[in-house]
Amino acid sequence: MSVFSDKLDALTFTIAAAAMVPCDELAVEIRRGASAPATAVGSGGSATTAAYLAGCRRSFGAPPTWLTTPAEFVLSGEQARGTPIWLFSGSGNNTDILAAFETARTLGDQELNIVTSNPSGELSGRAAGAGARVHLAPTGGAKDGFLATHSLAAAITVLLRASGLAAGGSDSGLADRFRKNAGDALDEGRRRAQSAALSSLKRDDVLLVVQDPRLNPAGITIETSAWEAALCPVQRVDFRNFAHGRHVWASHRPENLFLLALTGTETRPLWQEIAVLLPPSVRRYAVDFADCGRFQNAISVLEALTLVESVGAAVGIDPGKPGVSEFGRELFASPSLEKLARQLTEPIRAKRAAVVRYDPPDAGDHDLFACAADVHALWTGSNIAGLVLDYDGTVVTTADRFEAVRSDISGALAGLLKQGLKLAVATGRGKSAGERMREALPRELRTDVLMGYYNGACVRPLPTPLADEPPDPAPEIAAAYGWLIETGRVPREKIKNSAVQLTLPLEAVANFDGLEADLVVAGHTGLRLARSSHTVDICLVTACKTAVVDALALRWNLAIGSILRVGDSGGPQGNDHALLACELGITVGDVCARPRHGWPLFGPDVAGPDALIRLLHALKPVGDGLFQLNLSAIEEL
Fold it and tell me: Is residue 506 domain-resident?
């Protein structure tokens, strides 16, 4: 007998223990997340558990589940923001799953569930401190050994029962039926017969697991176990993907190929077709799992373990004790992924996402960790004398852009002005933004504030209503307006003509680049397009929010490098893109791909006015009308 066989002999006791534990709370969480996409994270045996959850969710019509390893989740977990996240770990002490947990907890308030067999594990402890839900899959005191066995069987058992409840079924009789069928699958006589059928397999053979795609948990169990225990080369493929090239191996090296087929009711004919056409010398063995539903999938995982036992016996390796090198132990225990997870702060993740999205030619030339460190050092080390703010999406939310400025923001701005900070507002809007800013600030402070209207096309002191000193009409804008009306590109009633700018609703511009190109083709040069979160502006090419920065510097004799700039539309087509083109340019919304410009202070959960108020509170006076940005103060807010 092998160590692995001893583990399988004792699995019925673990299944009995897991069949007794209450699973109502687990069922509630599975049901709660059934209306949204979900993420399931696991490695090794826990990858099987993650795949089993995905199949359970699919069985009652839930949206897709992203199956991912801890490393992939650490590197790109931000796409799971706002959706249920499930972490699976038998012991709860593996450094990689701890790294995944650290990533998950940075994604804001969302459903975070953990399934583990160890209530005393590090993962359970961290989860309790973070408000995550821990669901126990007890093993009755049994331990896994090298390959996951008991923790895997326990997790599958509780997920089977909980998913039945979540789908609207009943747990009555299900646990007993599963215990009985599990006993049949693990029966010693059945396992001996199976080992005899696989006894011709050799270490240098290729084991090709040809499977019904609904049986991924079983396929993953066989594939990962065979590789981890160094039993033989193995690959997983579905029946039709086998027909797209994998058959060549059967043609050229039939003597070194063993096909293990995992079939269901609908896929039996697909396997039968393959079996008939295969060269007779290709060895094969098939196991059928009927409807491939939740119950059959749970049984298939147990049978996958017995198949691993049979493969191990055939090649003379104990899957439960294959022999592990010292370097392998060190690799397994390495905390490198957890270190990476802690380095990937929300601002760095946001900048990385922008780099991936816009894919600039020099994307690979920059270390974003180093860039972030450099930018933060400049932020904290710079003496700031002036502040230029975008309005919509920054001072006010887009939804509340016609409402009054929040009292906490107006109060913070007034306090900074009293301490000597110089302020300007750069907006794509016209007079209404000035009116709101006059309402927001005390009369005695307004004279020190500049307003840059229409994306910098005109700059006026805040006390001066734009209606009293309107900008001179631009012929280029009038011509472009006539072209839009004549061509029917945008209905007349949707165009706001400000004489120096045309403002269109964002939904009226289906093709941003196409409109810009068509304007040029039609002879309307000297214009550019800029996008905000709710509009597209056709501006003069000479109009730019940086003109507001220049005006503030000229008004108060400030160095350009001492002016902090904040906006929300920092993407390459955004109307704050040029404004934020410096290391003191901070975005509270869309992020650009520039490695040293337009960095955010926070992740997407803290944006717009919520981010701005934290930034304003972090500006600390250092004398003579100068300020410095205190990042530690931001972290405390």
Answer: no
Closest-CA residue to 137 (of 99, 86, 96)? 86
Closest CA to 289 of 325, 249, 262, 266: 262
Interacting residues of 605 by C-beta distance below 8 A, sequence separation 6+: 108, 109, 346
Are the C-beta atoms of residues 343 and 356 closer than 8 Å to each other? no
Burial 356-383 (b: 16+ CB within 10 A, else e): eeeeeeeeeebebeebbeebeeebeebe
- 251-256 long-range Cβ contacts below 8 angstroms, 24+ apart: 251/279, 253/206, 254/279, 254/281, 254/282, 255/281, 256/204, 256/205, 256/206
Range of the domain at 415: 350-470+543-636
Among 546, 584, 558, 629, which Cα is nearest to 386's? 558
Judgement on whether residues 580 and 438 belong to the same structural domain of the protein: yes
- All residues at 6 or more sequence positions from 141 whose CB lies less than 8 Å from its CB, including other chains: none
Which pTM does this prediction carry? Answer: 0.89
Q: What is the pLDDT of residues 348-394, one digit of tens each?
A: 999 999 999 999 998 778 899 999 999 999 999 999 999 999 999 99
Q: State the alpha helices, DSSP H only, in 492-593.
A: 512-521, 546-556
